[in-house]
Amino acid sequence: MPKRSVYDSDLVEPAVQDVKTGKLSLRAAAKKYGVPKSTIEFKMKNPGHKDTCGPPPILTAKEEYVLVEWIVELAKRGFPRKKEDILNSVQKFLLENPRPNPFKNNRPGDCWFKAFLRRHPSIVQRTSEAVSSASACVSEADIRKWFAEIKIYLKSKDIDMEDPSRIFNGDETGFQICPQTGKVFAAKGEKNG
Predict the structure, then answer these.
(1) Which has more confidence, 129 or 90?
(2) Residues in a beta bridge with 183
(3) Is the pLDDT of residue 141 over 90?
(4) Which long-range contacts (CB under 8 A, 24 or more apart) does 132-137 make?
(5) What is the mean pLDDT of the chain?
(6) For residues 44 and 38, what is the distance between their CA atoms, to the nearest angstrom?
(7) What does the H/E/C string look like for the chain?
(8) Residue 90: how many CB atoms within 10 A of its CB?
């Protein structure tokens, strides 16, 4: 298999523009920008062609960004997601936002998940810590501290705490106070997980 050239993809467009406008020859643009001549030629002939190999991703870049942010935020709040949680969320999203995809029942498989992790190296897998019975005992001070942190977080997101329509009944919501151990996903370098 031929070796792929390594170049800054952000420099392809300026190189193409310099050749199109006649500022530089194809060879001079390739040398100046460090982009292969064949790449500049191809981009000139196929301006709308995508830059990546393989089929296009099922989720848009923006949708994947939202998914990554969701994984990171939940891990920060002490609710790291397992692989199954992430796949369930994508399946639910695709059921609510139908589009052609190769998944069985709109549920991505292992190949999609591995490719998703390659596209987003900021998300890493780690083993969650078990919660011992001693640490599961929560004091009043711990609960007050938790509510104070939530209040700070909501204020940082400009969420109005005084609006009565924001009052929700929180019992039977399925929040896991003591998450099960196993492999979970969180932001690279985060201590919690």
Answers:
(1) 90
(2) 127
(3) no
(4) 136/177, 136/178
(5) 82
(6) 10
(7) CCCCCCCCHHHHHHHHHHHHCCCCCHHHHHHHHCCCHHHHHHHHHCCCCCCCCCCCCCCCHHHHHHHHHHHHHHHHCCCCECHHHHHHHHHHHHHHCCCCCCCECCECCHHHHHHHHHHCCCEEEEEECCCCHHHHCCCHHHHHHHHHHHHHHHHHCCCCCCCHHHCCCCCCCCCCCCCCCEEEEEECCCCCC
(8) 23
181, two tokens = 């151990």
CA dihedral (175, 179, 183, 186) in degrees, to 10, reads: 60
Give the Cα separation of 35 and 52 in Å (integer).
15
What does the alpha-carbon distance between residue 85 and residue 71 come to, in Å, rounded to a whole number?
A: 10
Tokens for 21, please give them.
């406008």
* CA atoms of 91 and 30, how far apart (whole Å): 43
